[in-house]
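Hi D.,

Good news: the full-assembly prediction came through. Inputs first.
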Amino acid sequence: MVQTLEQAASRRKTRFAVIDCDIHTAPKNDKVLGKYMSERWRKHHEQFGGRGHAGAYYPRANMNAARTDSWPPSGGPPGSDLDFLREQLLDGWQMDYGVMTPLVGSGGQINLEYGAAHATATNEWQMAEWIEPEPRLRGSICVAYEDGELSAQEIHRASKYKQLVQVLLSARTTEPLGRRKYYPMYEAAVEHDLPVAFHFGGSGGSPITAAGFPSFYYEDHAGMPPAFEAQVTSFIFEGVFDRFPTLKIVLIEGAFAWLPALGWRMDRAYAKLKDEVPTLQRRPSEYLRDHFWVTTQPMDEPHNPDHFKRIVDNIGADRLMFATDYPHWDFDAPDQALPVRLPEEQERAIMAETARSFYKLA
Amino acid sequence: MTEVATASIDQKLTGGPVIDCDLHNTVPKIDALFPYLSAYWREYCTQSAFRGPVDTAYPKGHKTTARPNSGTPPGSSLELMQQQVLDPWNVEVGILNCTYAIESVHNPDTAANLAQAVNDWQVAEWLDKDSRLRASIVVPVQQPEMAAKEIERAARDKRFVQVFMPVRSSILYGNRHFHPIYEAAAKHDLGIVLHFGGAPGNPPTPSGWPSLYVEEYVGMGQVCESQIMNIIAEGVFDRFPTLRMTIAECGWAWVPAWMWRMDKEWKGLRREIPWVREAPSEYMKKYMRWTLQPIDPPDILQFLRIVEEMGSEELLLFSTDWPHGQWDAPEEAMPPDLPDGLRRKVAYENAKAFYHRL
Amino acid sequence: MAKYVVATVDEIPPGGKKIVEVAGRSIGLFNLDGEYFALRNRCPHQGGPLCEGRIAGFVIGDTPGEYRYSRPGEILRCPWHGWEFDIRTGQSWFDPKGVRVRAYEVAVASGSSLPPDAQPALNTADMRADEDDMAGLEKGPYVAETYEVTVEKQYVLVNVPS
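Then the structure:
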């Protein structure tokens, strides 16, 4: 029998609630953020635009590093259309909440005052065009993180917006994040009980690896963990958590399977090299356990699923927070991302409950 | 002055003779190289008061650099090495890694001549004096053509088994820039050792310079990660399939997570590096090994789990890392509860199989 | 098994594709040089809409700097993580270990009456992949589900288990 059939849309479901901790919403075009700047900075934005540490660009696998199916039908780049975001993501996966992490490069600006204006505009844009119309969305306070005073200022200003749930940095900074120049920013963050998150990417003036610039996008993309590891090591050994005992750090889009081995390595090194850090009050792995949360995308895929369970048990499901990284091409699908079936409690925690509690969502 | 010899290590720990893949012979002072330098270079060093390259890989006064009573400077005495390692551990073969930071010397000719002198010194003061010893060829990595010449020269002495390249560099080691080194090494069946340290001038992290030595120490594992990814992505082993690389003194507990990372992304981005014909972790297992010290896993359970996750029992090579103080009791250097088969592989068989020139 | 009409021939010219919903499954139809192929629109990795991905040629090398390009238009790249699938067979070449996927036998039939003006989009004579290029790579267990396609008069039909 020959049948002619209609097209039908398909929906996918997850077992448990989903909170997405890494969504890249983007302005429709270059002019959008200018609307939220003063005249002086809008003109600068239009004429000069961003100036970061150029020379670290690798053509992405896809345009805008996005899924090829994430271009909104209304026009504009992936992540720029709220209705399409709802369709493909918030409604599409029946999410409880989503946390925006706009990658617009405020903190990477070498002109720090411009960077600060850019950050303020980004924060206002998040509130006006995303959070106001969509109650499931939360956002991140962008700051000119290379300047302590400017970033503290913006944190104090933007703290009135309760839906901006963290301070957002990039993973590659000019100095390791445990260094003193960043302390005014942490001081402001803890005053308002805001976690500090750092996200895949950025460029602080050094080559993007410790041994120079790689040749391939493959390396730029897959090679982020060393940047995260160096930052974690810096926070811990510099005693940042002794100085700021309530400071919480979120690692976004840096993978996570590397955490247990780093914890061991730091502990071992600390046992041998204690003399260099005599005022450090606890073992490194204790700080790691108490002060760091990590998002799950890009999901690590051990060859043997049992090994994945070991990692989750070591880090703790109460430190892992699911993320899709929508609209990027290496998007993790909420119903498929976990490579193995975990105990229900762990899966619930990872998919939503850890984030719900951490970001104080209902 | 009497030095204290170490008591014989209980052979139950190692199951028999060992191959120690990371021993350090230290150039005591620049004068030690003078017999192997021409008149011009002797005068150059003397008049400029050049005392040797400066690097921060090993803080002089700390026990991680120097065990107690290991010499002045530590690692400069063959006799102490014999008393503290070669005899008590029943070392059948000991591979010397001389961490002389040639890469920090910007004058290419100074660098090349110093490298040559260090290698001649290694032969005269170490290899000729103890037949258990083998060595790594020190080269100016920053000048691959000159490095290749020195490899050609030194390779004639079969007791050199590999070429020394410090983990930190200013250009990632997969870059085609380094092909002359790999070509020369492959031609003579020499391995490559990527060793903890290096003073290339650029920072040891992607975010600049860390404040503390302990950060640099911990961070060396991460530098390895970036180097390994680049070496494989750039097709070094596709171009030189007989080449073998040892990663020395940088730990190895980080290896499985790195294998998974590299494999996952390669599946989707393979097109950019189409000569990488199989999963990057396969290349790691085939072409790379890791020396045992320092042992990061905190107990035998985690030790064995990491070996399992690495997917092969052939990847670890015993090392004492003398005179660096990575361990106190011998049981910390070689866990007593290793399964017998694994014990012998780590202590001896893996190195025997891996180095072409052993 | 039942046959379902999914398109008319002129809807899917050489180099074209169409995605349809059939028997509860989303399926992508492809036309390579006048031959039709059908793959399940669901990547075996994380279930992404495979057939919405971009179509590319095949590239392989033996040594760094070597890019041997062949079979333009015959490789489907998942729009999510970029995994490559051979449109003709549904085979993914590059993951020798991993998750088990249901494999379907592929049988491809040319249309009994193709429109007379249907021509291959490219002269592919020079771009046939070497046997050696495709050999030596491990076939992975990842196979996109494929379905038998026949052409009856002006229609494209796909054969799908009910």
